[in-house]
Amino acid sequence: MNRNPDDRRIKRTKKALKQSLLKLLREKEINQISIQELTEEADMNRATFYLHYRDIYDMLQQIEDEAAMEISMILQQHLPNEKDGQPYQLFVALLRYIQEDAQLCQVMLTKNRNQNFIDRMCGIVEEYCLHSWLSQYYQAGIGQKVAYFSTYAVRGFLAVVAKWIYSGMQESPEKMAELMSDMGTYGLRFLDMAPAVPDQAKR
To answer: Where are the alpha helices (DSSP H) in the chain?
Structure first.
């Protein structure tokens, strides 16, 4: 079934505006970006912008909402099971998403840190971690100690992901997922483990 040409046109328009906004956000704060500047960067007129967004802040909010929805869908597709308690596949899926939308994640997590965006993403993952993963292994109830651990783990992994993005994503999502799984499982003992075989050596 062919998609409506208007739908495809809208997606192309929003993608061009998104790429232009993220490019500008690498250079300045959002309150320094005008709609005129944005539309000139995207090579379109202001009227086209107003067909989809009220202002720059509304546009950024919609971009964040879409990212939150994508993250939530990935989390729901990787619920824990009794056979495999490791979150490796979940990490792979999340890292692949980040790699595919690298421009957004680079701006929001490293170049122009958006604390509201970071807190929102962490909140989604923390709630999932707390109620879908940790509750599988701590049946006594979700106490404050477990909640603290959830925050510690998620914020720590976010810092690792931000470093991965900032360094140019040199490791594959699979390699990073393996490292993060080992960090979560072994803690400081992770540092005593033999180094993983580089991706190039596996080929």
So the answer is: 5-25, 35-42, 46-50, 56-76, 88-100, 102-106, 115-128, 135-137, 144-166, 173-186, 199-202
pLDDT of 150: 80
3-state class (DSSP) for residue 101: coil
Q: How far apart are CA 10 and CA 42, in angstroms?
A: 14
CATH code of the domain made up of 1-53: 1.10.10
Distance from C-alpha of 164 to C-alpha of 140, rounded to nearest angstrom: 36
| pLDDT higher at 14 or 1 | 14
Token pair for 199: 């991706």
Residue 197, pLDDT > 60, answer no
Q: Where are the domains of the chain?
A: 1-53, 60-194
pLDDT digits (tens, 9 = 90+) for 125-177: 888 877 776 666 555 555 677 778 888 888 899 999 989 998 899 999 999 99
Which of 78, 83, 71, 64 minimizes the C-alpha distance to 158? 71
Q: Which two tokens stand for residue 124?
A: 């989604």
Residues 90, 75 contacting (CB under 8 angstroms): yes
Q: How confident is the model at residue 5 (pLDDT cuts 50, 70, 90)?
A: low
8 Å CB contact between 106 and 160:
no
Q: Which amino acid is at 55?
A: D
CA–CA distance, 164 with 13 (Å, rounded to integer): 30
Pairwise CA distance, residues 90 & 79, whole Å: 8
